[in-house]
Amino acid sequence: MELGQLVCKATRPDCQDCPLSSDCRARQAGREGEIPARRRRKVTKLETTVAIILREEEVLLVNPKGALFKGLWIFPRIEAGCREGGNGSKVVAALQARSHYYTSFANRLLPVVIDSENLSYLKPEEWREQRWVAIGDLNRYAMPSVYRKIAEEFAVWCENRG
Known about the structure:
By secondary structure, the chain is an alpha+beta fold. The protein has helices spanning 2-6, 25-28, 80-83, 145-161, and strands at residues 44-55, 58-64, 77-78, 91-94, 98-101, 105-115, 127-134.
């Protein structure tokens, strides 16, 4: 494995220092820059609406079930129809869309600030836990980096909405 990491690299192989260069079929065929071929991973593109649900000076954070965000807090994910004000939700503002890349998928997050009395569109069965958190305390909760950036932008939005 070390030979592949240090000498026989997919880009710029160092054939001069390779102890196996005399037996290398790729070098004999003049294709050392092509072999081994890099595998392309299939990346699934997702689009997720993230709801920053505002209740007075608090927002809802959830700890989702599943392994992806275990132990971390995020804003709830909602159906795209809620983003347009469906299901009794009142969209106050749309924040900057952000993309986050994982090994096998790219997720485009569309954060919206919602002021809502009706929370029936939420899916608490997808969460381990939920908490109403003071806006000033958001930085005390462990979040994935993309959600942290959303929280920071939300804090600036709160300061400017006055």
